[in-house]
Design brief:
Layout lengths: L1 H19 L2 E6 L3 E8 L10 E3 L6 E4 L5 E8 L6 E5 L2 E10 L10 E10 L23 E6 L12 E3 L3 E9 L7 E10 L10 E6 L3 E2 L1 H4 L3 E2 L7 E7 L8 E10 L11 E4 L4 E4 L21 H6 L4 E13 L15 E2 L1
Parallel strand pairs: 10-20
Antiparallel strand pairs: 1-2, 2-5, 3-7, 4-5, 6-7, 7-8, 9-11, 11-16, 12-13, 12-17, 13-14, 15-16, 17-20, 18-19, 20-21
């Protein structure tokens, strides 16, 4: 165990040095920024661990040399840019980071990003503007769910998946004027049809208010979060029925300060024989009901129930193919749609 930890530290250190020597180009536009980050071939498989603030790369290009070119193209209201006004200058600040470990751990590499502009004419400091304040509006939430590529850098270009390989299913909520929300996958099932009917055959993936059942029977897992409004379900593909597969999920946007037995994301850790809370393992007691029925809620949770938002999303069609099957698959590859 000590040797493995030592090797892990060495690998992280090597990657950090490689990133420190990387080429980073920043182009500041009127209301956005475009960043090109050239990385070594060794880091290309780990491009999904590179971030601009809270945002993943917009695109990854693998060069003929095997090196990678990571692109970030975002507007300043995104990615948690900090807007600062000082004298006659307006600046937007953020950080490029490489995070090989969960967000609770420090980044292995940090590179500051800043775009500076002339202060807009007629600008009034917020504390002098009687119309300014904190927005707590409830409308306008937009939910997303998509299948990512193997590098977790972009939406997958194919819906054909080898049996036993992993399907990274990304879900997020655009918060807009809301206070920060926690995105949860409350229930997910696999079905052979894009619409669920009372007679539909389904296979449970996530049940019991956020318990990842597939982490008990396979190697599926919720990946560590890098911001509260998104989550990645790293689902190991399986065969369900003879045809196409659809993933039906109930997504919930919730108060991040209120975690209880009905609002959670829990992985089963086989090595320890117990359930673990994704967002704070020290509170894993809320996952103990995953082996029974998760119904109880804290008083605060009941009060906040009216402030939560849910959305039913469908991902598919997905085509699971067995590599050992000699028959070639006749269906053309396409990106899976979401509704």
């Amino acid at each position: 165990m000590g040797t493995q930890l030592y090797l892990c530290v060495i690998i992280i250190a090597v990657y950090a040095v490689a990133l420190a020597n990387a080429e980073i180009q920043v182009v500041c536009a009127k209301d956005s920024v475009e960043i090109t980050w050239k990385i070594s071939a060794e880091l290309v498989p780990h491009a999904g661990r590179l971030f601009l603030g809270s945002c993943m790369p917009s695109k990854l290009n693998v060069l003929p040399t095997g090196e990678g070119e990571v692109l970030f193209n975002y507007k300043f209201p995104e990615c948690k840019f900090k807007r600062l006004m000082k004298g006659k200058r307006l600046s937007y600040k953020n950080e490029l980071t490489y995070r090989p470990q969960p967000k609770s751990k420090p980044a292995a590499f940090v590179y500051p990003i800043e775009c500076v502009y002339k202060r807009p004419e007629g600008w009034i400091p917020p504390f002098l503007n009687p119309g300014s304040g904190t927005s707590e509006g409830r409308g306008g939430l937009v939910f997303h769910m998509a299948l990512l590529n193997e590098q977790l850098t972009n939406v997958a270009k194919t819906n054909v998946i080898p049996l036993g390989s992993f399907m990274p299913i990304w879900a997020s909520v655009e918060q807009k004027s809301h206070q920060p929300l926690l995105l949860l996958m409350e229930e997910c099932v696999a079905a052979s049809t894009p619409e669920l009917q009372p007679s539909s055959q389904v296979y449970p993936i996530i049940s019991n208010k956020g318990c990842l059942l597939e982490s008990m029977v396979g190697n599926s897992v919720f990946l560590p979060r890098y911001h509260s409004s998104a989550v990645i379900l790293y689902l190991q593909s399986f065969k369900f029925g003879p045809g196409e597969l659809y993933i039906h999920c109930k997504l919930v946007a919730w108060d991040p300060a209120v975690v209880d037995k009905t609002k959670k994301a829990c992985n089963y850790v086989k090595e320890h024989g117990r359930w673990e809370l994704l967002d704070d393992p020290s509170q894993s007691a809320v996952c103990s009901c995953c082996d029974s029925t998760c119904t109880s809620r804290s008083k605060r949770g009941v009060e906040w129930e009216s402030h939560s938002f849910s959305h039913k999303s469908v991902l598919g069609p997905l085509i699971i193919v067995d590599p050992s099957d000699s028959k070639s698959h006749s269906k053309s590859e396409e990106s899976p749609s979401v509704s």
